[in-house]
Amino acid sequence: MEQTRDSGKGEDEETAGDTSSCILPGLVDLQVNGYKGVDFSDGDLTEESFAQACRDLLTAGATAFLPTLITSPAEIYRRNLPLIAKALDTEEFRGRVLGIHLEGPFLSRKDGARGAHTAEWVRDPDPAYLDELIRLAEGKIRLLTIAADQKGAEELSRHATSRGVAVALGHHLANEADLARLVAVGAKALTHLGNALPALLPRHENPIWAGLANDRLDATIITDGHHLPPSILKTILRAKGPDHCIVISDASPLAGLPASEYWSMGARVRLEANGRLYNPATGFMAGSSATILDCANHLVSLDLAGLSELGSMFFYNPLRLIGIAPKHVAASRNIRFDVKHRRIFQETSTM
User: Fold this and answer.
1) How buried is 202 (Cβ within 10 angstroms: 0-12 exposed, 13-18 middle, 19+ buried)?
2) Confidence label for 30 from pLDDT (cuts 50, 70 and 90)
3) Are 24 and 337 in contact (CB under 8 A)?
């Protein structure tokens, strides 16, 4: 029988007489678009390639994660959602691949807010279409990112919540009133706060200030060293508090590959040796090349969080958002925090 984790915070953070390092409860990533050339939203995805990408992600430090499909044409959803759902039922990935995150297709069509998503595949909020996606995914959609400023977003959020899907808000130009309306009908979080926005924003009325000010929305943040500068990370952590922040990698299918130029998400993108991944034609980020372990180490290098806070942001908070108890996450290799050297690593031996 597969091992599962205890639900108490303290027990997973204890060590066995080793004061140089501490065990973290784990690293749970709610937004992974692919890995090592495998794109979860690609029409060529196979059961074998998906399974191998999952194995590689777990080996690279993720304790558990949500494979993420970005805004896609209907035929991709019809093809890939059942394929992924089938893999989630296997013994190998039970308690490790926890469900599916749909980032879209109900996003803003506006440049900047849309990010790297393809405009022609964006849809207006449509509860009936969401029901179809849930059916295709065999009920395994755990998280849905939608734009809060679109007509029909409230109805969609209410419906998704009623179906047991956590709603996050992002890829929008929402203001305080928009966010308040969505919170009232079940929205719980903000998707990669501070990103997927135009380069220039109104000084006061913008989604960053609105998101920071709303105490009922957790913030997911990408701490890869490229999406958000240290000053913004510090500001978000201070405004929200570690109990309401969730670190995600937003790993691109190009994560784990060498520096080069690639074709990804319908555009030519550039992966630099320092890990920055972007569209040179627009200057916008094109996802992250980092793993969740990379993100943890960058955050630790900034000295913005201690052991308990890391446990909250990387393990307990993401599980709370998607409604999964810690005991239902399968035990895997220990994630250790080397206190002296300020480094997080995954043990090579299995539990």
Assistant:
1) exposed
2) very high
3) yes
Q: Which of 29, 149, 250, 294 is catalytic?
A: 250
Q: Answer for the pair 107, 122: CB distance below 8 angstroms, yes or no.
A: yes
- Residue bearing tokens 């958000």: 228
Q: Share the mean pLDDT of the chain.
A: 93
- Based on the residue annotation, tell me whether 250 is a catalytic residue of this protein: yes
Question: What single string gives the DSSP state of each residue in 265-305?
Answer: TTEEEEE-TTS-EE-TTT--B--B---HHHHHHHHHHTT--
Amino acid at 111: D
Rg (CA), the chain: 19
Structural domains in the chain (count)? 1
Could you give the CA distance from residue 264 to residue 69 in angstroms, rounded to a whole number? 14
The closest of 182, 191, 211 to 30, measured between CA atoms, is: 191
Give domain status of residue 131, yes or no: yes
User: Residue 315 is part of which domain span?
Assistant: 27-346
CA-based nearest residue to 68, from 137, 132, 157: 137
**299 and 314 Cβ atoms separated by less than 8 Å:** no
Flag whether 99 is in a domain. Answer: yes
pTM over 0.85: yes
Asked whether residue 246 is domain-assigned, the answer is yes
Residue 169's H or E segment, with its range, is strand 166-169
For residues 292 and 298, give the distance between their C-alpha atoms in angstroms, rounded to a whole number: 10
Q: What is the pLDDT of residues 83-133, one digit of tens each?
A: 999 999 999 999 999 999 999 999 999 998 998 899 999 999 999 999 999
How does strand 64-70 pair with strand 28-32? parallel
In a domain, 145, yes or no: yes
Beta partners for residue 39, in sequence order: 34
